[in-house]
């Protein structure tokens, strides 16, 4: 930086001896000398003009002339031709003592690049040489094995719902049988897309609406029931065996997990023994009819736990059922039902290893009592696809209303 005093000295020296001599005396190029003088003359301020070897020009305007903030003004004062130069950057600095400084950098304008259509074609052609389209990595499961789970929580087979009274849909043993068979047919159509080796049918409790011929739950709560106990039972035998047989035609193994519910614990246990006995000589169909309230199913790195209702100690309970498999698993899902509404909860990954609690939906319509009590639910099935190594890879929606309006089997 050249001080005001020095600028004044230069100015006076030029007045006395001329620009050429001043340039030699002060060791400044003649071009810069001319610009110094112009700047000094027009602003009575001080500044520094520096021409670099590459042709760039830097102009520094100190605080005494800081009204010069406009680059066009600076170009005029520094005698920079706007046709030949353009601004590159402008910096405005405030120093600790409050003084200011503006720095203007100018660069020579470049001729616009003109490309002929022929040149453009040649350039484009050269880009195509050696070009390869992006390659997408194809994921293959460790042994191309998939598991498809079919939720069958809270079917409440035997329940009577009268649409005029409930404001929802009609429901009786004919409809529940029909619905279930439509659902399984839909699952079979999805097996074409996801060719699973194993299908797990999750009968998650309250499969029957009542526990006894008195049409009551296990605790004795009276139920609005369709038809007679034994008829409801026969329908269930028919559509459950029909479903297992159909699934077994489209996969290698069918596993049926029966879980007692608060409506049907005793009845479902007996029913599961009937189904178990039915398939006792079929190696491809396995029935979990153990009279347990909590069960597991382990598939590769996936640990599935089942219980009908939410419990306060559900996470330690889940881990305690098969501790070794639990510890080694990556996908850990605790499956519950009972409230007929889909709800997903992921417990903190920090403390519980990423356990997911999935409350399954139900396919039944709300009845007059539940609607009057304000319970709302959307009728849905839940079909999931698991890969042995990757865990859950797909979830498929199912709504019984589609089959009621559309295809009937
Ligand atoms: Mn329940």
Please give a structural write-up.
By secondary structure, the chain is an alpha/beta fold. It folds into two domains: 4-108, Phosphorylase Kinase, domain 1 (2-Layer Sandwich), CATH 3.30.200; 146-405, Metallo-dependent phosphatases (Purple Acid Phosphatase, chain A, domain 2). It contains 14 helices and 15 strands. It has helices at 4-17, 19-26, 30-43, 71-77, 117-128, 163-166, 173-193, 229-248, 265-278, 314-321, 323-328, 349-352, 368-372, 400-405; strands at residues 48-51, 57-62, 85-94, 100-108, 146-151, 198-203, 253-258, 285-288, 294-299, 302-307, 331-336, 343-346, 355-359, 381-387, 391-398. Strands 8-7-6-5-14-15 form a six-stranded mixed β-sheet. Helix 7 runs parallel beside helix 8 (229-248). The chain starts with a helix and ends with a helix. The mean pLDDT is 88. Bound molecules: manganese (II) ion.
- The geometry reads as elongated
Low-confidence stretches: none
Helix content: 25-40%
Major sheet: arrangement of strands: 8-7-6-5-14-15
Kindly state the mean pLDDT as a whole number? 88
CATH superfamily of the largest domain: Metallo-dependent phosphatases
Largest sheet: 6 strands, mixed
CATH topology of the largest domain: Purple Acid Phosphatase, chain A, domain 2
């Amino acid at each position: 930086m050249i001080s005001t005093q020095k600028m004044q000295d230069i100015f006076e020296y030029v007045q006395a001896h001329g620009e050429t001599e001043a340039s030699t005396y002060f060791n400044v190029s003649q071009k810069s000398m001319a610009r110094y003088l112009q700047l000094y003359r027009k602003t009575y301020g001080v500044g520094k003009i520096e021409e670099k070897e590459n042709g760039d020009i830097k102009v520094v305007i100190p605080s005494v002339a800081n009204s010069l903030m406009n680059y066009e003004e600076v170009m005029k004062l520094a005698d920079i031709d706007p046709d030949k130069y353009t601004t590159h950057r402008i910096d405005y600095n405030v120093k600790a003592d409050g003084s200011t400084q503006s720095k203007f950098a100018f660069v020579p304008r470049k001729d616009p690049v003109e490309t002929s259509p022929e040149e453009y074609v040649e350039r484009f052609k050269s880009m195509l040489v050696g070009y390869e389209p992006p390659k997408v990595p194809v994921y293959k499961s460790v042994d191309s094995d998939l598991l498809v789970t079919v939720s069958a929580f809270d079917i409440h087979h035997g329940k009577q719902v009268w649409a005029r009274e409930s404001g929802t849909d009609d429901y009786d043993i004919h409809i529940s049988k029909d619905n279930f068979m439509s659902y399984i047919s839909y699952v079979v159509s999805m097996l074409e897309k996801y060719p699973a080796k194993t299908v797990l049918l999750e009968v998650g409790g309250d499969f029957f609406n009542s526990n006894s011929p008195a049409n009551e739950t296990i605790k004795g709560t009276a139920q609005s029931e369709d038809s007679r106990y034994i008829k409801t039972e026969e329908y269930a035998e028919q559509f459950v065996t029909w479903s297992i047989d159909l699934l077994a035609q489209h996969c290698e193994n069918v596993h049926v997990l029966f879980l007692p519910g608060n409506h049907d614990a005793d009845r479902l246990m007996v029913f599961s023994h009937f189904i178990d006995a039915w398939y006792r000589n079929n190696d491809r169909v396995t029935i979990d009819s153990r009279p347990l309230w909590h069960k597991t199913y382990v598939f590769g790195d996936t640990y599935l736990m089942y219980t009908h209702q939410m419990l306060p100690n559900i996470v330690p309970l889940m881990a305690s059922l098969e501790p070794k498999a639990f510890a080694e698993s990556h996908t850990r899902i605790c499956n519950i039902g009972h409230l007929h509404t889909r709800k997903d909860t992921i417990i903190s990954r920090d403390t519980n290893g990423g356990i997911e609690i999935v409350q399954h939906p139900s396919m039944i319509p709300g009845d007059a009592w539940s609607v009057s009590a304000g319970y709302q639910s959307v009728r849905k099935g839940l079909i999931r696809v698991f890969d042995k190594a990757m865990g859950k890879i797909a979830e498929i929606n199912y709504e019984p209303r589609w089959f009621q309006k559309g295809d009937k089997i």
